[in-house]
Design brief:
Elements: H1 22-51, H2 53-63, H3 65-79, H4 89-106, H5 110-115, H6 120-124, H7 129-141, H8 143-153, H9 164-172, H10 174-184, H11 186-213, H12 218-232, H13 249-252, H14 259-277, H15 281-303, H16 310-323, H17 329-333
Helix pairs in contact: 1-3, 2-3, 4-9, 7-8, 7-11, 8-11, 9-10, 10-11, 11-12, 14-15, 15-16
Length: about 325
Amino acid sequence: KEFTIDRKKIPPEYMKPVRMGLMQIWSQQVRKQEHYINHVLHLKDMRIVASKPAFREAVRNQFGESVLKTVDTYIDNIANPDFYRTFNELENASRKMRQHVAIAYLAYNVTTIAKQIPSLMLYWAKSSVADILTATVDMVSNPRKAYADALERHPQLSDQNIEREIQELRDSNPQGWGRIVRAVGETGLYGILAMDRVVKTIGMNAVYAKGVRDGLSPKAAAREASGVTLRTQPGFSPKDRARVYVTSEFLNWFLQFTNQLNKIYNVASYDIPVAFRNGNYMDAARSATALAVMAILIRMITTGEIPEDLEDSAVALAEQAVASIPIIGPPLASL
């Protein structure tokens, strides 16, 4: 009896309303259950490894306490993605506003569609011009087969979205996503989603072809193509999100439309230096060249002007470098 707690009498005006959306609640619970079924064994293994004193001490000594905390946070985010959590009313209102702002900005945005094309350069760094051209011809001549081949090598391709708000809305409220698509019109979002899929399909098939030609097994080549896609292209599955994107709802407002910029920052600040340190000078040079060409192409699309000299190209590189800095970069680049 000492452990019993009397029921709290809450006035009706403070009671939360009963959720009446039967199908919406059912679909959300099914998705949560499927998430648990598919991840429970992997999470159990990750928890066992991450909790071992020897592992924690090695990570702490080699990389520092912050990296160890990042590992723990990563596992927590996989176990309980933020779109399954319970938010307070202010956070829920903020999430809905972000999602609607993203839809309003992206719908019928031709410039954003065009800006997706330069991201093919990040695939070129791990393939070749010939492979990119061949994959493009295959995509144009037989898009269904090209996409099916890429999807077989990277099943996540069918569920990757270019912005977190779209991913959150599709994951947490499929019915709401459907209503928005019907309200905006399928053509309003089709161009952006289709171009994202086209770029990833071409790039993945190009990297796969290069890997097989270099002697990799089909499985290893598919893993390489999948890895390049996850490291360089937009995607907001819980396992692919940087820690900064799951820090706070308030901070999320400053991180809108920065997923691709975050990937560029990672390539510039981590992939290229590591390639140099490991003696992979050609990989580092190709990645640096890809970022430079990508920056110039994005500036051309944004301004509608072709760089006339080295100074214009340097400005494009500087703008891209500043814009890719997490949180503060986009506001600084817009000044």
